[in-house]
What we know:
This protein is an all-alpha fold. It has one domain (2-153). The chain has helices at residues 2-38, 62-80, 85-94, 100-153. Helix 1 runs antiparallel to helix 4 (100-153) and helix 3 (85-94) packs antiparallel against helix 4. The longest helix is centred in the last third of the chain and has 54 residues, at 100-153. The protein is elongated, with a radius of gyration of 24 Å.
Amino acid sequence: xxxxxxxxxxxxxxxxxxxxxxxxxxxxxxxxxxxxxxxxxxxxxxxxxxxxxxxxxxxxxxxxxxxxxxxxxxxxxxxxxxxxxxxxxxxxxxxxxxxxxxxxxxxxxxxxxxxxxxxxxxxxxxxxxxxxxxxxxxxxxxxxxxxxxxxxxx
Length: 154
């Protein structure tokens, strides 16, 4: 009976593992497709030192999306003096909503933080897909081990 349970579990895991790997690969391809469609590219020069390796590169991977979001964060911080959207919005509303400079700064912060969030979402999807691929590989190995153990017990 134990051998039968191990064999059934092993077979199930052997079926689930490749499915997980395929879904992880599909997730990565989707992220790449969506980022490529956006035609986001790093500038050819003028990047901060940690990002110089991306000079003139198109954003096609989750890792590149995160790097580009870091670039946006630096630009937004520079434009806003390090203040967040919520801080600027609060100041704008406190000042009676008639300060044109704060209004435009609020819009800049909002757009920058929104773009950054979208790129970080792509990075998260990229990381989760890597996790799913890795777990799929582990599931295949565990399934094979269960089948081997079932064969040994039979």
